Amino acid sequence: MILTSPPYLTRIDYGVAYARELAVLGIDIWGESTIRLDLMGTTLTRVKKSQPAAMSTAARDLLVNVSAHSSKASHSYYSQQAHQYVADLGLGLGEISRVSRPGAFLTLVVQDSYYKDVHVRLADICIGEAELRGWKMIERIPFSVRRSLVSLNSAAQSYKKQAVVESVIRLQFDG
């Protein structure tokens, strides 16, 4: 059984946010520049672009919507960051699939977010990406989130958003 919560597609720099915890483990994110660059969900973009072999409809729709957004850098930086995130998610789920036996269970805890006014339906994306890799959804339990990181950024509040949902997703590996 695997229980995990992948990073969200937000502007959170997880390397910086968890610098103290990483330092306790002996990892200096400032001295070792590749750590921040290699993290899934990083705000840094990599020169080498990774393209997943296959992509779910939900992931593809997100990438199209981010790239087509009218705000500055949507077609360049933000689109590249979103592509990188989806590719990293696919690689992570691929590795989980590689080491899982048929019948294994995977539980993901994910939360929707927004890119401007584009709804990042992370649960749908994770389910679609997992199904491409041999997983079958057993259960999806949504929870309303009253306070989220979306509400902290005052500039982001100018974009219309719906309520944010956190989901527990249970899947089983068909192998």
Basic shape: globular
Alpha-carbon Rg, integer = 16 Å
List low-confidence stretches.
Answer: none
Helices, by number, come to 6
Helix content: 25-40%
* Helix-strand pattern: EHHHHHEEEHEE
The computed structural class is alpha+beta
Largest sheet: 4 strands, mixed
Q: Write out the strand line-up for the largest beta sheet, numbering strands in chain order.
A: 1-2-6-5
Mean pLDDT: 88
Q: How far apart lie the N and C ends?
A: 14 Å
What is the count of β-strands? 6
Protein architecture, described:
The protein is α+β, with helices and mostly antiparallel strands and 175 residues long. The chain contains six helices and six strands. The strands form two sheets. A four-stranded mixed β-sheet has the order 1-2-6-5. The protein has a two-stranded antiparallel ribbon with strand order 3-4. A hairpin with a 2-residue loop joins strand 3 and strand 4. Helix 4 runs antiparallel to helix 5. The longest helix has 25 residues. The two termini are 14 Å apart. The relative contact order is 0.18.
